[in-house]
C-alpha cells in the first residue's frame, strides 16, 4: 500500500465516523416528525437592557406558589419546544424515552425532570448551562446534536436561569430510567461528537443583533435564531450536517429552505416571491404561527407540531417580533410576484380537463380546494399561489396527498379539518399527475412530480390519524 494511503485511511475513517455521528443531528422522533439543529455554540450573554421582557401566559399546571422565574422558564420551555423531543407518546412530561431515528441508529431522548436518580435533579445551574450552551453533559460526555444546543446557546443568562428554575421547581420529578441508544459500535463511540463539536460548533459568540436594530427586531432575531431553532428545519445543511448559516449575517442561505426531513421540506422563510414569504405581511405570519392557518396556507407535516406544542403559546408581542424579523430578511432570489392565471379554472369549469392530472383533480380534490384553486377561506387552503406549490421540489405536496393531514389543534383555532390520505386510492403515477397539475396550474410555478419520487415518499409516509376530539388541550407545555 502506498504510504500516503496508509496514513490517510485512518484519518478518512475517523472523518467518516465524525460525519456519520454528526448525521445524528438530523435525528427525528420516529413517531412524529421533529428534526434537529446543528450549529455553533454561544456564551454567557445578556441582551441589551432595552429588549422588552416576554410576558408569559400563566400556566395552569404550575403550582400557585410558582415564582416569576419559574413562570418565565415555563414560557421559555414552550418557545424552545423541549416537549417535542423529551416527552414520549403518552409518556410523562419531560421523562424522555422518545425514539429519534437517525441515519446511524435510534437515539432516545433523556429524562430531564428533576428526579435525582434518572433525571437532572442533582444538576447545578452550571451543569445545566454547560449542556445548553456547549452540549456537554454533567458527566462530561458530549450529547448528540439531535439536541439543538447550538441554537439554545444563544440564551441570555437571565433566560437560562429561568429555564433552570422551571425544570427544578415547576416540573414534576419522574423516576423513569433512560433507554440505551440503539447505535452499533463503532458509531456508538461518543468521542467523535467532541471533535464534531470543536470543528462545526465554533467558539461561542455573544448573541448580537444588527447595530441600530430596534428592540422589537432584536427580540425577533433572538427568538428565531435561538430558542425557536427555526433554522434546524428551514436552513440548508452542508455535507457535515452543519447548518450553512446560523444568522442572517452569514448570508442568504440562512432560512432559505431546508432539505427533506422525514419526507417534508421546510420552505424558505426569506422574502422572495414564489416559495418564500415575499407575498406575506406581518399579520399573516403571526396568524399562521398562532393558529396554524391563514388565508394563504394551512400548516402541515413537521410544522404542525411546532405550532401545536410551541408557537401557539407565544405572546402577541413575541409573535409580532418574530414576524418583523422574518420580514427583514433579504430575498434569496428575485422571482416575480405570483399572478393568478384563470385559464385552467375556465377549462375545469367548462368540463374540459386538459390532462389526466386535471381530471383527477376535478374528481378527487376540487370539492374542497375548488376548480379555481382558491379553496375555501381558512377551512380548505387555497392551492393557487400557495407557497408550498411554487418550489422546485414537490416532496411536501406528494407527501400530503399520500398521507393526508389534519390542521393542528390550537386554542385560538380549535377546528382540525382533515384531508384524507390518498395512498390506498391513487397509484404512484396518478399522484405524480395530480401533484404536477397543482404545482403548475392557476399561475403556480412549482416543479413537476414523477412516479419514482412518489414511490420514494410512499415508503415512509404514514396516513394521518383521525384527529382527537375537539377540545383536547394538547400536550403541555
Ligand atoms: C429536537 C429534539 C430536542 C429538543 C427540541 C430538545 N432536546 Fe434536549 N436532548 C435531545 C436528545 C436526543 C438528547 C440526548 C442526546 C444524547 O444522548 O446524546 C437531549 C439531551 C438533553 C439534556 C441532557 C440530559 C443528560 O442526561 O445528559 C438536557 C438537560 C436537555 N436535553 C434539555 C433540553 C431542554 C431544556 C430543551 C428545551 C429548551 C430541549 N432539551 C430540547 C433532543 C432534544
Ligand atoms: C375533504 C376536503 C379535501 C379534499 C377532498 C382534498 N383536500 Fe387537500 N387539504 C384539505 C385540508 C383541510 C388541508 C389542510 C391540512 C392541514 O393543514 O394539515 C389540505 C391541504 C392540502 C395541501 C397543502 C396546502 C396547505 O397550504 O396546507 C395540498 C397541496 C393539498 N391539500 C392537495 C390536495 C389534492 C391534490 C387533493 C386531491 C387529490 C386534495 N388536496 C383533496 C382538504 C381537502
Ligand atoms: C421541525 C421542523 C421545523 C421547525 C423547527 C420549524 N419549521 Fe416551519 N415549517 C416546517 C415544515 C415542514 C413546513 C412546511 C409545511 C407547512 O407549510 O406547514 C414549515 C412551514 C413554515 C411556514 C409556512 C411557509 C410557507 O411558505 O407556507 C412558516 C411561516 C414557518 N414554517 C415558520 C417557522 C418559524 C418562524 C420557525 C421557528 C420558530 C419554524 N417554522 C420552525 C418545519 C419546521
From TrEMBL:
Primary localisation category: membrane
Spans annotated as Disordered: 43-65, 445-477
Residues annotated as domain Cytochrome c: 68-171, 215-330, 352-442
Signal sequence region: 1-22
Name of the protein in question: Cytochrome c
Taxonomy, superkingdom: Bacteria
Pfam families: Cytochrom_C (PF00034)
Annotated organism of origin: Pigmentiphaga soli
Record's keyword terms, sorted: Cell membrane, Heme, Iron, Membrane, Metal-binding, Repeat, Signal
UniProt subcellular location: Cell membrane
InterPro entries the UniProt entry points to: Cyt_c-like_dom (IPR009056), Cyt_c-like_dom_sf (IPR036909), Cytochrome_c-type_DH (IPR051459), Membr-bd_ADH_cyt_c (IPR014353)
Ranges annotated as biased composition (Pro residues): 49-61
Amino acid at each position: 500500500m502506498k504510504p500516503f494511503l496508509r496514513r490517510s485511511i485512518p484519518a478518512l475513517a475517523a472523518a467518516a465516523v465524525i460525519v456519520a455521528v454528526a448525521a445524528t443531528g438530523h435525528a427525528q422522533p420516529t413517531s412524529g416528525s421533529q428534526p434537529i439543529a446543528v450549529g455553533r455554540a454561544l456564551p454567557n450573554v445578556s441582551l441589551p437592557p432595552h429588549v422588552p421582557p416576554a410576558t408569559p401566559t400563566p400556566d395552569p399546571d404550575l403550582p400557585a406558589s410558582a415564582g416569576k422565574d419559574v413562570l418565565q422558564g415555563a414560557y421559555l420551555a414552550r418557545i424552545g419546544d423541549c416537549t417535542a423531543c423529551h416527552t414520549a407518546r403518552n409518556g410523562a412530561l419531560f421523562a424522555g424515552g422518545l425514539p429519534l431515528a437517525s441515519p446511524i441508529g435510534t437515539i432516545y431522548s433523556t429524562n430531564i425532570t428533576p428526579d435525582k436518580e434518572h433525571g437532572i435533579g442533582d444538576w447545578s445551574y452550571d451543569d445545566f448551562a454547560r449542556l445548553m450552551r456547549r452540549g456537554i453533559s454533567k458527566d462530561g460526555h458530549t450529547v448528540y446534536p439531535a439536541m439543538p444546543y447550538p441554537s439554545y446557546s444563544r440564551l441570555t443568562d437571565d433566560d437560562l436561569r429561568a429555564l433552570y428554575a422551571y425544570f427544578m421547581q415547576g416540573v414534576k420529578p419522574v423516576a423513569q430510567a433512560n433507554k440505551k441508544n440503539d447505535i452499533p459500535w463503532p458509531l456508538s463511540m461518543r468521542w467523535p461528537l467532541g471533535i464534531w463539536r470543536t470543528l462545526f460548533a465554533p467558539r461561542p459568540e455573544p448573541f448580537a443583533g444588527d447595530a441600530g436594530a430596534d428592540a422589537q427586531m432584536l427580540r425577533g432575531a433572538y427568538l428565531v435564531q435561538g430558542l425557536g431553532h427555526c433554522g434546524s428545519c428551514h436552513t440548508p445543511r452542508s455535507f457535515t450536517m452543519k447548518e450553512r448559516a446560523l444568522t442572517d449575517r452569514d448570508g442568504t442561505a440562512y432560512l432559505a429552505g431546508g432539505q427533506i426531513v422525514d419526507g417534508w421540506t421546510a420552505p424558505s422563510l426569506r422574502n422572495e416571491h414564489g416559495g418564500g414569504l415575499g407575498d406575506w405581511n406581518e399579520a399573516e405570519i403571526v396568524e399562521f404561527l398562532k393558529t396554524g392557518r391563514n388565508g394563504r396556507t394551512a400548516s402541515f407535516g413537521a410544522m404542525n407540531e411546532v405550532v401545536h406544542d410551541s408557537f401557539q403559546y407565544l405572546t402577541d408581542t413575541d409573535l409580532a417580533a418574530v414576524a418583523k424579523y422574518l420580514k427583514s430578511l433579504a430575498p434569496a432570489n428575485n422571482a416575480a410576484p405570483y399572478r393568478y392565471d384563470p385559464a385552467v379554472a375556465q377549462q375545469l369549469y367548462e368540463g374540459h380537463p386538459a390532462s389526466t392530472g386535471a381530471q383527477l383533480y376535478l374528481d378527487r380534490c376540487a370539492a374542497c380546494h375548488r376548480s379555481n384553486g382558491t379553496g375555501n377561506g381558512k377551512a380548505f387552503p387555497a392551492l393557487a399561489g400557495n407557497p408550498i406549490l411554487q418550489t422546485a421540489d414537490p416532496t411536501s405536496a406528494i407527501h400530503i396527498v399520500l398521507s393526508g393531514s389534519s390542521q393542528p389543534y390550537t386554542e385560538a383555532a380549535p377546528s382540525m379539518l382533515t384531508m384524507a390520505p390518498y395512498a390506498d386510492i391513487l397509484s404512484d403515477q396518478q399522484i405524480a399527475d395530480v401533484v404536477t397539475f397543482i404545482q403548475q396550474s392557476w399561475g403556480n410555478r412549482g416543479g413537476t412530480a414523477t412516479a419514482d419520487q412518489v414511490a420514494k415518499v410512499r415508503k415512509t409516509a404514514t396516513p394521518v390519524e383521525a384527529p382527537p376530539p375537539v377540545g383536547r388541550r394538547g400536550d403541555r407545555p
